[in-house]
Fold each of these.
Amino acid sequence: MSQTEISIKNLNLSFEKQQILKNINVDIPRHKITVIMGPSGCGKTTLMRCMNRLTDLNTQAKVTGNIVIGGRDILHTNDDITEIRKMMGLLAQRPYPLPMNIFNNVAYGLRISGRKKKRFLEKRVEHYLRQVNLWEEVKDRLKDPAAALSIGQQQRLCLARGLAVDPRIILADEPTSALDPISSQLIEEKFAELKSSYTIVMVTHILRQARRIADHVVFMYMGEVIEQGPAEEFFENPKMEMTKSYLKGMFY
Amino acid sequence: MNRRKAEEYFFRVLMFISSTIIIMVLLHIIYSILKAGLPHLNWDMISKVPEGGYYFGKGGGILNAIVGSLYVAIGATSLAFAIGLPVALFMNIHLTKWKKVVNGIRFLMDLLCGIPSIVYGAFGFTLMIFFGLRTSLLAGIITVTVFIVPIMIRAIDEVLMTIPRGLFESALSLGSTKSEISYRVFFKQSIAGIITALLLSFGRAIGDAASVLLTTGYTDYIPTSLSQPTATLPLAIFFQLSSPILEVRQRAYASAVILIAIILFISLLARILTYSYKKNKINY
């Protein structure tokens, strides 16, 4: 097995009295696509939100355990939280472009980290827009508001915007659920390309999508990890009864 | 006709009637003010301060009140904006974890919005006495600021509340600090709503008589410093309207026309400004 990028140990999360995540132990391999799947409400999105500390936004959420990325425990650290979040690009369920023009959406992350030279920004913005196959579609209207793009284009813009802060990891929370089939396919193809230089963690409940792109699978049910392992093994030869019935489509 | 259709028809008629009544009443108010005021509106009214015998129907105008009102309203709106915008952003960005605290603040603000302006006037007056200040432009600006700050905060707050969590989280994930989110993302997304909030507060500030009654005093001169008393349009209308002399009462209506014209002008200006800022707003 390849190197581990994110190592989650004994992670528990409870919200008021309800325990959402129960003793999660997961190793996410570097430069692979790891798919977290499971029925609705199983805690897969919450698990992802722990990784970039969006759970901080909720005072009632109590988190214990460790998430180790690159040798440091990001749950218990005094390091600047913006630095931790910058290691991970987030692609949400639906695109949330920033209220500014297309160019500035991508330049935003660079600007806030102090890279303000116009020539530099122009180069980088073009680079990242090309990387998500959006450049040809928008190169003549970079000054147009991001809202003028279609939802599929907006999602690719959000991917470019996330890549621009130079993360190591891409977190994607059902990134294609609001998109049409062609836009979804574009995102999936992008992920397959990007995994050579990024570690990708994707939450999905679409079984076929998981089959198409996963290298590594984590299967969750009711806040627990039921089974995890390399995709081939997981899909061809699942060990747990629950995984077998889920794969047969017996429950969602 | 079945019951559902009848119900639909009933409510449609009801809505039509109430809208018509409201519009008619509004139009009638504007019509009667214009009818009473326009014939007596002349260039002197808006270009001159009261001359000797003005209050007995002789020459002069109410430039003192126009300028005084603009000073008070612009001063108070700017101050209230400088206080209100950070408070509203703070509530929606930094206090998101403490929902109960935020709801408490909202409740308090709503309460303050409901307090009649004369109470703020009286409050301002007691403060003035405490600090040994006389009626002045500054005292008026401070009192009106206190009076419109809750309105400003709640108006901006309502706009910020409509911003989806996803945008906040996306911006956080890009490594933004909360202040960067405040002025680079939230401010830009809600700029149209913020202009509306400014407008709303300005309208309240320039149109309110009670809060300035005890604090600004009244004078026939245009104030040249913050410590001088000043006239305001609502009080000019009030004083002139209570005069026994017909010409003076007619001028009260002309003053009302001027006040409405100022508010109309500011609204139009704000609409035009909003239009050019709106284009980057994302409609979620």
Amino acid sequence: MESITPSNLFRERSDSRAVGSRRGEWRYRAFSYLVLTICALTMVVPFIWMLSTSFKPEKEILRRNFFPNQATVDNYSEVITETDLPLWYKNSFIVAVFSTISVAFFDSLAGYVFAKYQFPGKRPIFIIFLTSLMVPTEMLIIPWFIMSSNPPIGGSWVDTYWGIAFPGVITASGIFLMRQFMQGVPDELLDAGRIDGVSEFGLYWRVAVPLSLPAIGALCIFNFLGNWNAFIWPLIATSKSEMFTLPVGIQLFSSEAQTPWNLIMTGASLSVVPLLIVVIIFQRYIIEGIALTGLKG
Amino acid sequence: MWTLARRKVVWAYIFLAIPIVFFAYIRIYPALFAFQMSLHDYNPLATEQPYVGLDNYEKLVNELNKRKSPTKAAFQNTANYLLLGVPIQLCLALMIALMLNEIRFMSTFYRIMFFLPFVTSTIAIAWVFRMLYQPRFGLINVMLQLVSLPQQPFLNSPKQALPSVLSLVIWQGMGFAVIIFLAGLKQIPRTYYEAAEVDGASRWHTFRFITLPLLNPTIVFLLVLQTISFLRMFAPVLAMTEQGRGGPLDSTTTVVLRVYREAFTSFDMGYASSLTVVLFAFILIITIIQLRVTARRVN
């Protein structure tokens, strides 16, 4: 079996026509396209409905038309000016970027150490890191909440960026992934660097990191998406609207009794569409990344 | 003088210092803290958090033995979500992956379509589904009327609410399973298929005796991952039910929703912690089973 690397995972199979000679093949293929098209439509219709409703004036909500008769952008200006949505955007962005940078650095550094260093206690430490994967976030949120209200350093962490981000600044799954990758860094290269007087950190930074950029990239994309969409902890870690992240803001804004559906759909569109665009641009890397982290993890 | 080996050991510890402190303080300690809380009557607003032994667990058992209780409903629903959701999701995903694997024209396009829901915010998309399910003006009821079928209450009916929420979860998580299955399928050597074709094996036989057995590791992996994610279900129920209560009549509530309510609405954090300990136990059992199964395969 060939090894999994980002480049060969989704390379088009050059011999995929080999199976095409089977009898009734075209019928199967036509059937496949039919089923896939129906399924793909099911996947996109909710998004189109969301967008379409976001352009409807309120009086059109109860009508049964799919597309608005009189499209309007009033919903957008209302949501942007009347709610803290721009702030929720900013908060989600800051938290996601901060966690992602931290994860990229610490996970790759720890992964490098586990892959390339021998030291007493290596196995137990690694096992403890991995065991923490089994503890669900849901079990930790209550203790985190108590700890955040009364932390060892400084005042309450509630309603601060650090308070939202701290659980995700280093991840066990990322360390595991990076360790797998860093094992592929040649020891000869590191030893040659040592002879040339490169510092241990320099070896990580100038040899190991450049050689594992694809894996670090996949890790970053995932981590960003995960943090951007994270919900349960930000819901608990924030109490002021100015500090909500996007999902928390959308949930609390939409749950208010008077919120009309067209505004809810506008909020949803604003939170989903920019991400969808980014995802479509980077789709290749993301799909490869899912497969990669999935198979390694 | 320091030898190189000793210098490397020192550097290893320096590099790992922050991660070790992090895992000890942010992951391990809170997990132990949760166990400890579950043995106390832990109300963060009260002045004292008395030790009550296994009282919270006793309460949990009592709740489960009642004919009807929110906790019992939460466990039953979570089991339903899981037992229905995991097989349906994996079968659909496998079917789609098998089809996607054999087409070339527009295959990237389809792949993007399938994984778009997976990367969108659950909360936002749950609200979209909530609107789709609305009586009269919700898209699904509009379409039912177009083809002269009776209107359905969906989220307003204690019977239909759970399948309605489940549909969203399956819809959203399927793309992930499709992509993992595709990656698994690419790993199967082509020669097996060529041999099967030379032998004149039917499509079904090829699937049954080549694809399925060789895909087994992928299936086990997805089974475990999806089971755990169904056990942890929370956000869709919060967003799709009236005031996030898991209604109507507790018909959609989940274990994690109960944890959230008990801990942050009733401030009964001791009882909520005992629920999370049970959740942890389930995840632990599933992981151990996975490790056993995977280990046996290797041997």
Amino acid sequence: MNNKENLKKIVLWWLGTFIALILIVFNTIFYQTLKYSFYDRVKNSLILVSHNIKDNFTPPSINKIVTIPSKLDYPISPVMIAVFGSKNMKIIAKSITFMDINLGKYIKENQEFLIVHNKRYGKIAIYIIKIVAPIKGYIVVATPLYRIDLKLQDIFIKMIILNPILLILLLLGANMILDRVLNPIKEITKAANEISVGDLDRIIPIPLQNDEIKDLVLAFNSMVIRLRNGIDMIHRFNSDVSHELRTPLTVLKGEIQLALRKDRDKEYYKDVLKKSLKEIDYMIDMVEEMLMFSKIDSEVEQKENLNLDELLLKVVSKLSFKAKHKNLKIEFEKIEPIKIKSNPFLINAIFINIIDNAIKYSKENGVIKISLYKDDGNIIFEVMDTGVGIKKEDLEHLTERFYRSDISRNRDIKGFGLGLSIVKKALDTIDGKIKFDSILGKGTIVTIKIKDKK
Amino acid sequence: MKLLVIEDDEAILSLLKRGLEEEGMVVDTAANGEDGEYLAEVNHYDIIILDWMLPEKSGIDILKDLRSKDIKTPVLMLTAKDAMENKLEGLNEGADDYLTKPFNFDELIARINAIYRRSALKGSDKIVIDDIEVDFESKLVKKNGEIVNLTAKEFEFLEFLLANRGSLVSTEMIQDQLWNSEEFVNSNVIQVIVYRLRNKLGKDLIKSKRNMGYFIE
């Protein structure tokens, strides 16, 4: 929760700083532009007045200061006008609005337009033009800027007041938008917190708006569904396992209970122990197959250079005692030396389970033919048996976990329906395929194709 | 009491047969669904013990078909399926009881006896006729308050006649009930049992009709 609030604070802080900087820069530019445009207008007015004076000025004949009448139609007022003779820089004419400012000293500055600061009247704009006729001299027009400055000051104060208000309003708006953005995230967090392993049926309601939040929700929901599938698979596996364990446990429990109901002779107890041992062996085999099944996942990474033909021979010699037991003949039809970089555990699991199945489902005195060769970039491993065969309706279920056909339900044939799912899982891992061709009662050919990645 | 056990696992089937026979029950067996259903249709059984997952035909399908054919033999489902929905399905389809594997043998026998009392003996576990008292629960028979020792077959015979009290039971029916289908039965055996029972319990209890059968009033 703290993190979420921090996120909002950080965004607002950066946004506030950014907007404030923009406002300062923008307002400064605006204020300065305004100021210069005001001053420019004053300058233009002064030029206008000065030219007007220049055109209409008649110099006095006597050595007396004449009064220049101020016209009402001047674009600015008050305007101070003075004409200086260039001889001694003395005023020869001035308007009645002329205030006691020594304008003469600014003529020396050699500038047409200048703004000076007077202690009494504040800022004053001055425009100076030179005249040569009818006399040599200067016309100086000036006007105080206090009105404009007051206006500018007023604008400046308004800016100082309005800008923070604008900033605050923007931040409030941003706050609202952030809340709208962050609330769905809050909802997601809440929903995510409520979802537990035991309760994966929940999904987060999908928002109406088609935006990134919706993408997030969809991604989250699909993750939950994937998790649910994974957990369902584990549940199913557990329930399959416990179900498969029930049969041997039923026999064990029943036989022992029955034996204990009354006194029995020695042979009876021996028989019960033998039966119990058989069931325990069955359970041990089952646990081993289950371990093999779950180990496949962790075996993907390790790859070694393998001689497939050697591995196959090892597996066959390991299983040959089982074949002898049923008086089966194992023949190699075609064995090529094949080198491959793959995982030995997976390859072994494939060889063992396929050959073991062939032995299990073979009738006595049967023949098992094994081939291993390369064909068109694929490694082919083929096992043909003269066994009981597979029913058509069973074919597609063969690699399902704990699936056992009616024939294989007979527990004289040891097996739990995990063997072929182990093979399937191993083949999926190393990019291989399995195919069954079978005639019921005659036998089965299992063909395994593995891509030979050099 | 005559039972049919339908169970595909050989070890469990053998266990059930031995255990139930030790209890004096007569047990027929079937190792797949179709055989089991056939036996249930052609023979009379007091109870059928039915597994769920069977080759050829599943236990639940057998149960449905039996009930649809109006065969009302009590069925006890004995299965590894322990989910509540399975139990409900089994009971709703007409099973009389449901027991999950691995089961307790004593519990199985107690449940079989309970079903038998409910169906064949109509709920009673004791029947008194004049001075004779038959307790089906403890399998004890008393005459004038004193215990009379009966063999398992003698008790079975008496129990069967009492379950069909008031109606005539033929020797074929008795033969079917007291022995399983693979046993060879000499017809004299039934006469011997009747003779012994009459000796132990008095002449008037078991009545006979010549060449037709026996009954208890």
